[in-house]
Structures are given as C-alpha cells and as structure tokens.
Amino acid sequence: MDSINPILLIASLMVASTPILLAALGEMVVEKAGVLNLGVEGMMITGAVVGFAIGVNSGSSVLGFACAALAGAALSMIFAFITQVLLSNQVATGLGLTLFGLGLSSLIGKPYVGIKAPGFAKLDIPLLSDIPVLGPILFRHDPMVYLSLLIVAAVWYLLTYTRAGLILRAVGENHSAAHALGYKVVRVRFAAIAFGGAMAGLGGAYVSLVRVPQWVEGMTAGAGWIALAIVVFASWRPWRILLGAYLFGGITVLQLNLQAAGSSIPVEYLSMSPYLVTILVLVIISVRGNHGAPGSLGRVFHASQ
Amino acid sequence: MKLVTKLLAGAAVGLTMAGAALAQDDPTKVGFIYIGPVGDGGWTYEHDQGRLAVEEEFGDAVETVYQENVPESADAERAITQMALSGADLIFTTSFGYMDPTIAVAEKFPDVKFEHATGYKTADNVGVYSARFYEGRAVQGTIAGHLTESNIIGYIGSFPIPEVIRGINSAYIHAKKVNPDVQFKIVWAYTWFDPAKEADAAKALIDQGADVVLQHTDSTAPQAAAQEAGGVYTFGQASDMSEYAPMPRVSSIIDNWAPYYIERTRAVMEGTWESDNTWDGIGAGMVEIGEITDAVPAEVKEEALALVEAIGSGEYHPFTGPINKQDGTPWLAEGETADDGTLAGMDFYVEGIEGEIPN
C-alpha cells in the first residue's frame, strides 16, 4: 500500500467538510428557533449556481460568496413567508423549496455549464504557514474554511451566552410561552430562517467555487440532506455539528484516498464508513445528557392560539 | 379504501384513454427515465440529445417526455409506472440499476414497449441496448499509456458492474501494451453522479501520483479537478466534454444514441417493434471517439486513430488473446477473441491489475 500524504489529505478533508458544516450550522439555528426547513438542498444548489454565476461574471469569488448568501436568504424568505405568515405545513413547504431550488438553479445555470471558475486564493498566513508540518495543515487554507470555523464559535457563543440566543431558544422550546412574555416569535423565526438560508447558500457556493470547482446541474447531490441529518445526530449543538461535518467529509475523502493508495480494507466497508462512523460517534457522545429536539420544532405558531 | 378505489378507477380511465388515443392516430408518446440531470454534461446529456433527435426526426408525430434524477431504487419503479400510466407507448430507461424495475413495470403494462440501457434482462415487451464502450476504452488506454510519465493511471469507477469492469480491463490491456510499466489505481465512487465526490476521487488519485485520470462517472467534475491540479490528462466520458479541451481533456468517448432511438421509435409507430438485444460499437457509430487534441503527440494520435479504424472495421477485437485473468489462469488463448456472453457478465480483472473487485 502506498502512503498517503497527510498534509494533502487534511487540506482536501477540510474542503470536503466545509459545505456540509456551513449548511448544517445554519439549519441548526433555524431548528433552534423551532422551525424545520427541509429546503436546505434547494437553498444550497441555488447558492451554488448564483455564487458561480456572479463569481464568473465579476471575476471575484468573494462577491460570488456574498451573493450566494443573499440568494439563499432570499429563497428562504419565501419559505418563511409561507410557513410563518400563511401558516402552511413546514415539512411540505420545505420539500417544495428544495424542488423549486433545483429547478431554478438549472434554469439560471444553463449558460454556465463547462465554464472555468474564478480562482480563490488560499490564505497563506506569513510566518505561521512556514511552521513545519503544522503550518501547511493549519494555516494554508482558503478564507472560507476559517470563516466557517469562526461562525461555529460565534453561533455557539450567541446561543449560549447572549440574551438574543436565549430568546431564540425560548421561541424554539415553547413559542406560546415566549409569545406570552412579549417576544416577537414570528420576527425571531424570520431572522433565523434568513440566517439558515444564507449559510446554505454559502455552503452551496463553496461546492461550485472551491470544491469541484465548476457548475453542473444538481451538483450538491444530496449534501443538504446530509446536513439535515447531522443536525439531528449532533443534538442541535454547534461543536458537535463541527465534529459531525468533519467526520463525514473527512472520512469520505479518506476512504477515497485509501482506495487510491491500494488499501486492503474491502471497498464495500470503506464506502459505507462515512455514514457509519459519523452516526456511531455522534450517537455515542450523545448517550448522556439532554439532547432532545427543541420543544416547538415544526409546530405552527399563531398568536391567537 | 374509497380513495384507493377512486385512484384505481382513475388509472383505469387513464389507460382506456391512452388506448383510445392510440387508435386515433395521436402522436406516439416516447418516455425517457434519466439517472442524472440533462445538464450533467455526460451520460444523461447524451441520452437527452437522442431524445431531441427523435423529436426532430418525427416532428408532430411524436411527443417525448422525460424524468430526471430518478434514483436506482424503489423510486425507479414508481417513476416508470407513472410514465406508463400517462400514456407512453415506448419508454427508454437509461441506467443499469433500472433493470429490475423496468421488468417489473413491463409485466403490468404488456402493451407498452420498454427499452433498458446496459442491462441484460429481456421480455416480450422489453428490449435491451448498450454500446461497446470498451472499444473506446481501448483507444483511451493506448493514449493514456503513452502520455503518462509517472506510469500511474487513475480510474474512477462508479459501481462494480460488468460494463465498468470491461472498461477498466480494456483500458489496462491497451495501456500496458504500449507501456509495460503502467500501473492502474482504481477508486470506486459508488455513484453515477455526484460532482463533489467525483472531484474528490480525482484529487485522491492525483495526490497518489496519477497523471492521467479516466472516469466512468457522469459529470465533468473530474475534468475540473484535473484542470485545477494542472499537468493531468483526462478523457471525456459519455459526452465529448470539449469545454475542457485541449487540456486536460485530450479525447473522449461519445455515446451516440440518436440513430437507435429514432429507429426504435419508428418501429413502434409502424407496429414492427420486437424485443431486441442491441450491442453496437465504433463500427455502427454508437460509440464515437471525440477529437484527439494537440496535447497528444502526433505519432500517438496516429496510432490511436489507426486503432479506431481497426476496431471499427471489425479487423481487431480489443479482447484478443493471449490474455490471462488476474489470478493468472488463462482466459483467452493466442489469437482468440472474447465472446459476447463472457463480456456481458465480466466479473474479473485481467492479469496485472492490482486490487479486488468489490462485491
């Protein structure tokens, strides 16, 4: 068996994990506010195409990412309006959003098939990146990788230690009580849904601008659903989502590398390992403690009830 | 219960109407079930080109419908059934995994004709068709063997089914013929279409030293990954993928389904359709070799074109002995060529390929 270069492996591991991490983190905030948005896949793919289109036309990946976040948020506002104002069923609306996003993206993406993505420079942090071994592993990634890690920390801090986070969780745990206390349930949920949409959009754009990098119809190929699953298995906790996303993305890449290196482990086991290991690890660390879903998750709220 | 009765009644009405429609000489309805999106730039894209060719050929006399992104699961049976219920006269199911669903639905709709791509199960109203992609793989293997400098050729497999294994064997035999030091590294992606994963697989192979990457998955993602890495050669798969020419894509296998789809549609319109088992290659034009770019040295290009010619005329068979199986047991004797039965069920590597085929 040939050896695998750990530095190259870790670089591609982080690249493979970042889209799922971003999308899952966004969805976690949405669900913490008591809303189940199954439209993650649709928002991701829309982010992927919008990010790519803007990136190609402007030549700037940064602008592409920004617009992808906006597009994801805009799409999620349709969902927010239908579920929060018109009080429709969240599961059905979310699924509809996914179908809509897939169709919309293939329409927008038609002229962009086979076009080369604009480059996205890696952040070569001076001095730090020159440290042997650790330097290339920790300090030579693209800015989105660091940004996604920052967002994990920020979400964790906001939800755990701030008043805004407390209100968001209150709305998600018991919207009637939160309403009785005078919090604007619908307004909080609109904000959470917009954040979730923006993050899914960013995750999608990361696939089309960095990970592949190109536009192909349907290119997220189920990453949104994986993100949704990770939220549940991570018991709605940001650091566990980070662990889950990195495990899943990491093992996906690792098993491909093991195959390429001629490992003696049968391919059948290798290819199911990302799912198995991620679920196992997250279930084992969640054996103790409170890890239930937010109390009002998926329930319709109306001030009169 | 009431709902079920209603649905059944509705289906019955639908069926009668479909029958009536046929009698009235209304357009022949041709359906297509696709594994990926029509914009994948590869496999499904080419099938859809075939569909468009049918529309162009027959104009108002046909109506085509298609459904994209149909998984190879219970969902496939639902999608095919729905298409049959909606009055399709002929349905092409265009991925290997639709084999059993196609047979199952065909039993329920004896008056609808079905055509399943790349499978081997037929019935009175189910025909199968495929292309001899391995002929194109022989050409790719020849070019790849010449081009590689690291002597490592990466291969992205989808699923370990005979069609994919044939391609690997054919490419390997011909790469080895021109470059005895060549080594194949094979990665099974277990998907036909997942651009991110396909790109990851290509990167893993490139990280392992491959400077030529062959793919048997449907999207252009490995091409993009190779372009990003630089100095890596690829081949268009199923479609020309010429947007990546002249580098990394140096040639391609193009599946040309249009003539077959037109011929079979005509057979249904004229009432002459019969279950068939078609397996055409370069000679019949079902497999085409995309332009070999200038990134390939002239003498290599010439050799490759000569091979295309020889295979097309039937003068040369890509599986011509002496060839041993991976474990060293003889398969084909000197000058012997493989029979279609063995090729159709191929489940072994030829001698020299490392690794095991997953079950």
UniProtKB/TrEMBL annotation, chain A:
Superkingdom of the source species: Bacteria
Stored InterPro entries: ABC_transp_permease
CDD domains: TM_PBP1_transp_TpRbsC_like
Transmembrane region(s): 6-26, 38-56, 62-82, 94-113, 144-168, 188-209, 215-234, 241-260, 272-289
The entry's keywords: Cell membrane, Membrane, Transmembrane, Transmembrane helix
Keyword Transmembrane in record: yes
Topology of the protein relative to the lipid bilayer: Multi-pass membrane protein
Subcellular location: Cell membrane
Stored Pfam families: BPD_transp_2
Protein known as: ABC transporter permease
UniProtKB/TrEMBL annotation, chain B:
This protein's UniProt keywords: Signal
Chain ranges of the ABC transporter substrate-binding protein PnrA-like domain: 28-311
UniProt protein name: BMP family ABC transporter substrate-binding protein
Lineage: Bacteria, Pseudomonadati, Pseudomonadota, Alphaproteobacteria, Rhodobacterales
Taxonomy, superkingdom: Bacteria
Keyword 4Fe-4S: no
A Pfam family assignment: Bmp
Position of the signal peptide: 1-23
